[in-house]
Specification:
Shape: globular
Strand content: 15-25%
Structural class: alpha/beta
CATH topology: Rossmann fold
Number of strands: 8
Order of helices and strands: EHEHEHHEHHEHHEEEHH
Strand order of the largest sheet: 3-2-1-4-5
Helix content: 25-40%
Largest sheet: 5 strands, parallel
Radius of gyration: 17 Å
CATH architecture: 3-Layer(aba) Sandwich
Distance between the termini: 28 Å
Number of helices: 10
CATH superfamily: HUPs
Length: 234
């Protein structure tokens, strides 16, 4: 990895945090808090996807319901905001580069970084307009258990300069597993290391799901919760 001191790393005003958020869970909140705590960005903008390119045809909660669930998660959270731009664009599939272009239209506050998981980083070369995305925007990556990111892995798909840029955006951290009944801490700061955990539904989100009758099939909800534990950026 390039020898970059903390003061040499880019700090972004806003990081784009996209995903289906179907439903959003404590792990998502931990990721957003981790990005802020790392000092690599000052604001995290949650952007629920209208129709994620990698999830075409999958059943999910409506965009309006997912927006409301994320609104519940970010309410009162310092440094976090919600964007409904994908509802205005209504593109199917929706691609990150194009959504970022729309967010950065003249007159809008600039959004110059995105926040993704290590699993997504290793597949980033497959994304729509991938090289343009990496050249034009910063990429902050949160660690994912089982997805080690190395310069060698990145250089298989990226020129050296871009591989180094991507590696420099990895936020140091480790995952840990906790009981679903335990009080969950999304982020703990230990001497410049940032511990990110995935967990269950937040109480207010679970209450909203019950009130709106979302995921009525218990097996479906269970599958989504299990997926939520594995996928921090979905």
């Amino acid at each position: 990895m390039p020898d970059l001191k903390k003061n040499d790393l880019n700090v972004f005003d806003t990081a784009f945090f996209g995903g289906s958020f179907d439903p959003p869970h404590a792990g998502h909140l931990g990721v957003a808090q981790g990005a802020l705590t790392s000092g690599r960005c000052r604001r995290v903008l949650w952007v629920p996807a209208w129709s994620p390119a990698h999830k075409q045809g999958r059943a999910r909660a409506s965009f309006a319901d997912r927006m409301e669930m994320v609104r519940t998660v970010v309410a009162g959270q310092a440094g976090m905001d919600l964007s409904g731009i994908e509802g205005a664009l209504q593109r199917s599939p929706s691609y990150t580069f194009e959504v970022l272009e729309a967010l950065n239209a003249p007159g809008n506050p600039p959004v110059k970084a995105l926040l993704i998981g290590a699993d997504s980083l290793l597949d980033l070369h497959l994304w729509h307009r991938a090289e343009e995305l990496v050249r034009e925007y910063g990429v902050l990556t949160y660690p994912r258990e089982g997805f080690g990111v190395t310069i060698e892995a990145l250089e298989k798909h990226w020129p050296q300069e871009l591989a180094e840029k991507l590696l420099s955006g990895v936020i140091p951290g480790i995952f840990f597993k906790i009981s679903s009944t335990a009080i969950k801490k999304s982020m703990a700061n230990f001497a410049d290391r940032y511990n990110i955990n995935t967990g269950d539904l937040l109480p207010d989100v679970a209450d909203l799901i019950r009130r709106r009758g979302l995921y009525r099939d218990p097996s479906t909800l269970n599958e989504r919760c299990q997926e939520g534990r594995k996928h921090g950026n979905e």
